[in-house]
Design brief:
The chain is mainly β. About 15% of the residues lie in helices and about 35% in strands. The protein folds into two domains: about 130 residues, Protein Transport Mog1p, Chain A (3-Layer(aba) Sandwich), CATH 3.40.1000.10; about 150 residues, Mog1/PsbP, alpha/beta/alpha sandwich (Protein Transport Mog1p, Chain A), CATH 3.40.1000. The two termini are about 30 Å apart.
C-alpha cells in the first residue's frame, strides 16, 4: 500500500504524517493529532531507535484492552515500510481503537484512531484516514510542536528562538531576533521543563532568577500569589529591580501537575535612566499630558495563561 500526497492531505501536528481529514476534525494542541467533538481522534507517536521488525507482531495488542479477545490484525506494506494494522476494544471505556504501526530496524511510527464504540461511520472515516495517509520520512516538524507543553503566541510579537536540550529550556523573543548578537537587555522569556518539583524549591528557582536581574544592593520589588485551584498547581510572581542603570520588569509562573513542572520566566528592560527622563516643556508652554504607560508585562501574562503540559 503506497499513498500519494495530494492537495487534500494535511499534516498532523507534531508529525510528518499527512491525512485526508474527515469533516469535523481539527488540530488538537494537547496531543500530536486531530480530534472532533464526538470523541473521535487521531494521534501520531514516533518511536525513535526502536526495531520495528522485532516487535511488529506485539506492538498493536499492547494498546488494546484485555477484553479485546477478537483482535483484528494483519501485516501489510505502508509507504514502502513493513506495517501492521489492527483494531479492537480500547482501554478507554466506551471506545474502540485502531492502530497503524510501520517502520524499520531503526525506528517506527504509531498512528492511533480512537472512536465511539460501535460507531460504524466513525470507524470507516478513521480507517480511511490511517490507511490513506502519507508519511514524509524526510520532513521536518517545527520544534515548538515537539515541545511537551502547549503555549499560544497568537497576538504577541514573540517566536521560538532556541531550544536548549541540556536543561530542557525553550527561549522565546521578538520575531526577527533569532541569531542576533547576545544582548543582556534583550526582551526574552523562557519555559523550562522540570520533573515534578516541590513548590518551595520551584519558588527558590524563581527568586534566584530575579536576583540575577538585580545589581547587588539594589531594591528588588515583587508581588506573589497562588493561582486559583485547577488541575495543575499555579503560582505567579511579578516585579521589578535595577540592573546597571536599567529597570527590568519580570513575570514568572510555576505550573506543576503529576507529570512535570513548567517554569516561565520573562523579562523586559526599561529605557536607560537618562533616556527615561522627560524633556522639560519650552518656556511658556504647558506640560504635555502623559498617558499611563502600557503594562510592559502584559504579553508575558497573556502567553503564560495558555501554558500547560500536553496530555
Amino acid at each position: 500500500m503506497r499513498s500519494t500526497l495530494t492537495a487534500r492531505h494535511r499534516r498532523v501536528p507534531g508529525s510528518t504524517f499527512y491525512v485526508r481529514a474527515a469533516p469535523g476534525y481539527v488540530a488538537e494542541e494537547s496531543l500530536n493529532g486531530l480530534a472532533r467533538p464526538d470523541g473521535s481522534l487521531l494521534e501520531v507517536l514516533r518511536v525513535p531507535e526502536g526495531n520495528f521488525l522485532k516487535v511488529r507482531t506485539l506492538v498493536v495488542e499492547q494498546y488494546l484492552a484485555k477484553r479485546a479477545t477478537q483482535v483484528q490484525q494483519h501485516e501489510l506494506q505502508f509507504n514502502g515500510y513493513p506495517a501492521v494494522f489492527g483494531q479492537g476494544a480500547s482501554l478507554e471505556p466506551g471506545k474502540d481503537l485502531m492502530v497503524l504501526a510501520f517502520g524499520d530496524s531503526v525506528g517506527f511510527t504509531l498512528v492511533f484512531g480512537l472512536y465511539p464504540d460501535s460507531d460504524a461511520a466513525a470507524e470507516a472515516e478513521l480507517r480511511q484516514m490511517l490507511l490513506g495517509g502519507y508519511y514524509d520520512a524526510r520532513g521536518q516538524v517545527p520544534p515548538l510542536e515537539l515541545a511537551p507543553f502547549v503555549i499560544s503566541l497568537a497576538g504577541t510579537p514573540y517566536q521560538l528562538l532556541e531550544v536548549r536540550p541540556a536543561d530542557k529550556t525553550y527561549v522565546f523573543g521578538p520575531a526577527g531576533s533569532a541569531g542576533a548578537v547576545p544582548d543582556t537587555f534583550a526582551t526574552r522569556f523562557t519555559v523550562q521543563v522540570l520533573p515534578p518539583t516541590p513548590p518551595d524549591e520551584a519558588r527558590q528557582r524563581l527568586l534566584r532568577r530575579a536576583q540575577a536581574l538585580t545589581t547587588p544592593g539594589a531594591l528588588l520589588q515583587s508581588q506573589e500569589r497562588q493561582l486559583p485551584p485547577s488541575p495543575a498547581y499555579g503560582y505567579e510572581v511579578s516585579g521589578s529591580s535595577n540592573l546597571r542603570g536599567r529597570r527590568p520588569g519580570f513575570y514568572q509562573l510555576i505550573r506543576t501537575d503529576e507529570d512535570a513542572t513548567l517554569i516561565f520566566h520573562g523579562v523586559v528592560f526599561g529605557a536607560p535612566a537618562a533616556a527615561a527622563r522627560p524633556t522639560p516643556p519650552a518656556k511658556g508652554r504647558k506640560p504635555a499630558v502623559v498617558k499611563p504607560a502600557a503594562d510592559p508585562l502584559a504579553d508575558f501574562r497573556k502567553v503564560a495563561a495558555t501554558l500547560r503540559m500536553k496530555r
